[in-house]
Amino acid sequence: MTPISQAIAQTVSNPYLIQPATIVEKIREADDIATYRLQFVDEQVRRSYRFSAGQFNMVYLFGVGEVAISIVSDPDKPDSLDHTIRAVGRVTRAIAGLKIGDLLGIRGPFGQGWPLADIRGKDIVVVTGGLGCAPVVGAIEYIFQRRSDFGAVRILHGVKTPHDLLYHERFETWRQHPDTKVYLTSDRADKSWQYHVGVVTELFHEVRIDPARTAVLMCGPEIMMRLGAPILIDRGIPATSIYVSLERHMECGIGLCGHCQMGPFFLCKDGPVMRYDRVAWLLGSEGV
Amino acid sequence: MVTASDRCGVLPHADFQRLLNVLTEKGYRVVGPVVRDGSVMWETVERTADLPIGWRDQQEPGRYRLEQSGDDRIFGVVHGPQSLKPFSFTPREALLTIERSKNSFASVPTLPKSEKVAILGARACDVAGLAMQDRIFLRDAYADPYYQARRNSMFVVAVNCTRALTTCFCASMGTGPGATSGFDLALTELETVFLIEAGSSEGNDILSALAIDPSSPAQIDEAEANISSCAMNQTRRLNTAELPGALYEAHEHSHWDDVAGRCLACANCTMVCPTCFCHTVEETPDLTGQRTEHARLWDSCFTQDHGYIHGKNIRPTIKDRYRMWLTHKLASWIDQFGASGCVGCGRCITWCPVGIDLTEELSALLKPSIRTQQKPGQV
Predict the structure, then answer these.
(1) Residues of B in Cβ contact (< 8 Å) with A249
(2) Shared-domain flag, residues A138 and A266
(3) What is the pLDDT of residue B2?
(4) Residue A62 and residue B98 in contact, taking contact as beta carbons nearer than 8 Å
(5) Listed range (A125-134, B15-24, B151-160, B223-232) with the worst mean pLDDT
(6) Which residues in chain B have Cβ-Cβ distances shorter than 8 Å to A15?
(7) Are residues A60 and A176 in the same domain?
(8) Which of B198, B157, B182, B222 is nearest to B9 (CA)?
(9) Do A270 and A132 fall within a single domain?
(10) Fewer CB within 10 Å, N side or C side of chain A?
(11) How many domains is chain A built from?
């Protein structure tokens, strides 16, 4: 092989290559959380980039490193790529200091997203907690783009304190769609909080569910899914109709670095969205 | 095992240098076991005398010693701490060089330069370990181009085992002591000659270039008998019958506390393991701030950082980490890659500073727990 053709082959097949992307918008969500709207520098990449709701990217900061972050934007608008990032670790803290016009790098998309084609025609119950709602935002947007393809939509979202409520406007917008209800709850509340007070699972009995035609999308702290899914199963929803998005440390995104293992699964390639019945035995299992 | 065919010949001990010469003439750098620091390490060998002639290894849990064997066998040493892993999955591999430009940056892959390497003296367990690493790095959704480049330049000369260490249990894992596939050449060291079998077309080319006599049926029988008796002499075995299920079910077993009380979480077992593949990624910017190197390094599930996720550690205790390692190696590996992550080389037993023996730990875990057993997932 000549050196030139070799270089082309590498560009096509090397899963480690990082694509530079410019921050075109930075939306402050909370003190330590911001949404970064990105645009690929390379026009070719900008045009060809596609993802499905629930997938993630490895987000890179030059000279600092990479971190796995779910894609929060609408899969029907792939030219606008949004990541909501909480400043919590070495890389995300450094990202927090960036401003519009600065560069990030993107590798992806990776993983299995929400099975939106399989749950077409069903009633949808979305159960999320805290920043865990980020991976499901794209799925909700997808469903509302095709509103008549789905039945009733019920969105149940819990936060620890009113201060932790992100995407407030989105929830209010979603509420306006036909046959859609949004339930918000906070573990603790102050006078400003006009919604329910308590944990998200308490909202379950406010929702009328037709178990046979319902699909559940869950995302948030693992304990929420571990305790929440069995309640929904008691309500008659098959475990095979419940999908959970799970989280582990990830360094490669392609099932090789070993960090994202949960039992027999590599969450970066088998997940992050998993059907509940496949992982129920692992949730809450110490050290898994 | 050794097969009678035109792909099988005999090379007298006295002529062993010819094999080194032919490999060198064909453009390979020959690497073999060389005595260093009380063990053997893979190093470049030019002369037969560079090899550990007259030495043999004694291995026990937490103990490795070389001693004079009293004979002049070339491959009396079974193995050192290194498997074939460092050749294809290197301890540190630069992945990209990333350079800033005006309003962007560009990442350039730093694929390894191809250098043909012939590795002389790989054991059947190591060949099996390499096959498992091929499965992991090359036969998934993404083939790793760095591993592929290094792997393509490897020529593997296996040496079938005719002496079992006390730590060996390849027979119970079905990976040895004779190499059956995955090699270019396989040698069996007999009293005065080597039986050489080709396992690939490249191996056949070397065999043809050597122009040696074909082996006799008696020599093949002798090699077979020596390999079989090596298998019979293995005193350790791993009870694989109930895996993977039994280990998943043993998640709350009391014995994990017992082994956690001995394990130092030093990660030696994962470093010497032929199949462990965990790695971390490291970023090294240069002093100008305009250029940075993106590299991967071997990692281990015994480190503090392995189970880290935004502010917490999934596996804070040594018990969590040992359980992760053993359950992955012997159980979930089967679900992930279709076979056990253990090839029975015994290195993790020898190189464990406190002599933890996974075959014994597994046996204990397959016995009833001394406290009420909980199923994983139960609250």
Answers:
(1) 306-309, 314
(2) yes
(3) 54
(4) yes
(5) A125-134
(6) 142, 144
(7) no
(8) B198
(9) yes
(10) N
(11) 2
Sign of the CA dihedral with A265 first, then A268, A269, and A274 last: positive
Q: Residue A57 and residue A43: Cα distance in Å, rounded?
A: 18
Q: Show me where the domains of chain B are located.
A: 8-232, 245-366
CATH value at residue A68:
2.40.30.10
Domain carrying residue A153 = 123-279
The pTM assigned to this predicted structure is: 0.94
B368 touches chain A (CB under 8 A): no
Q: What is the pLDDT of residues A176-218, one digit of tens each?
A: 999 999 999 999 999 999 999 999 999 999 999 999 999 999 9
CB B96 to CB A16 under 8 A?
A: yes
Token reading at A167: 């995407």
Phi (first) and psi of residue A72, to 5 degrees? -105, -10
Chain B residues with beta carbon closer than 8 angstroms to that of A264: 244, 331-332, 335-336
Residue in the structure block whose two tokens are 């470049």: B44
Does the residue A2 lie in any domain? no
Largest Cα span, chain B: 73
Same domain, A52 and A132: no
> Chain B residue closest to A64 (CA)?
B283
**Residue among B100, B106, B281 whose CB faces A65 most closely:** B281
Residue A68 lies in a domain: yes
ipTM for the complex shown? 0.93
Q: Note the Cα B167 to chain centre separation in Å.
A: 14
- Which of B136, B299, B300, B336 to mutate to test binding with chain A, by most A CBs within 10 Å of its CB? B336
Q: Count each helix (H run) and each strand (E run) in chain B, helices first.
A: 14, 16
